[in-house]
UniProtKB/TrEMBL annotation:
Biological source species: Chitinasiproducens palmae
Domain spans labelled Sigma-54 factor interaction: 141-369
InterPro entries to which the protein is assigned, alphabetical: AAA+_ATPase, AAA_lid_NorR, CheY-like_superfamily, Homeodomain-like_sf, HTH_Fis, P-loop_NTPase, Sig_transdc_resp-reg_receiver, Sigma_54_int
Domain of life: Bacteria
Protein's name in the database: DNA-binding transcriptional response regulator, NtrC family, contains REC, AAA-type ATPase, and a Fis-type DNA-binding domains
Keywords linked to the UniProt accession: ATP-binding, DNA-binding, Nucleotide-binding, Phosphoprotein, Transcription, Transcription regulation
Domain Response regulatory, residue spans: 3-116
Entry annotated with the keyword Cytoplasm: no
Amino acid sequence: MPHVLIVDDDANTRDALVELIRSDGLTTAAAGDLREARIQMVRQLPDVIFTDLKLPDGDGVELFDDLEPASGVEVIVITGHATVESAVNALKLGATDYLVKPINFQRVKAILSRLPRTGDLKAEIGSLRGELRRFGRFGLMLGSSPAMQRVYDQINKVAPTAASVLLIGESGTGKEVAAQTVHELSLRRKHPFVAVNCGAISPNLIESEMFGHERGSFTGADRQHKGYFERANGGTLFLDEVTEMPIELQVKLLRVLETGVFMRVGTTKEIETDVRLVAATNRDPEQAVEEGKLRLDLYHRLNVFPIQLPPLHERGRDVQLLAESFLNGLNERYSTNKTFPPSSIETMMSYNWPGNVRELKNYVQRAYIMASSDSVDTTAVPLQISLSKPQAAASVTIPFGTSLAEADRQLILATLEQCGGVKTRAAEILGISLKTLYNRLVEYGEDGKSRAGNEADEVAAEDE
């Protein structure tokens, strides 16, 4: 059934509308100000909003800014101070109707009667989002593995709140994309998202970059400069590699987070800021505290809601999903229609990806450039050393006195196992042809396994 949100600071009006609407068989939510209304809208997008024009923290028409143009939400404006000008302004902004206090409840019933009762559009949208998530898309993030589903659950819970988030994960796991997703699913999504790499700024300039400076405050400061906290005001500030921030600046950062005020370099005037902080690190934060890289008090302030991002080798089939997404992006950009053959997918699935998603993205781009046809054959772009996922037997021990033939056999079989059975990759590592590898496997009694799939076609192709 349709869902209705009532926004009014007058409790009697709210209660009367809630009772009337519920008696009509609809679900309702109520809010006394804009802040409460926005929280309710994140929890469940309504089909209809009844909002008072004058609210304690602003104007009811500000809610239009929080609605997507294609959302289809009807907004009915209510006021006790009716003027032609206010009515026209509300209608121009997109209001579908206008009610004057005391409210005519017959008009309310007439408005509700226009709503479709067959099928719940918002439930369908929620179901669609659920389907997209099962197919591996959540906000700006991509991946359907159980590890990523756990991350999506955590982001979904924390995004609508004001809590600080600490993203922990190896380099290249997508911490900035996760931070952007937190922002896009929050109440601040209409305001700036500002990303800062704390390790990429000179220690001599980081305070000026973070808080800004006044003209003449130091040599070269020829104009006033707004820092990241000012630029992100009202939105989200993402501090990547926060453990690389100088300790003396961490003290000032902590003060800003606790008081909501800061000072530009070269002045004693305090400036208020309203930002939601998302921080990230590729270190173990507790170890960083022990090593003196991160203040304990700042760690506790940032660690309100920690989220661990999994490395790519723990995400299973996400490797294929991401690789094909990157390839599709290149195809769209350059108007091509290139695809990965099954052998290329197997090669990428068998690799450990120490550089995580960033390394995979760069590798797909190299393979795309090197492909001489519509088939992106990864054998043309050798992967770096550290070629496979960690296995229990990551090394081969050959006792003294072992024959050369036996040592050869053990090395070939161990390499094949480390490559997850992908023979094209094993042959490349061993420095032998694919045909030679098959011949050796036949000698070792592995011929039944070696001819599986369509890899035999590769041998035939090599003979030609």
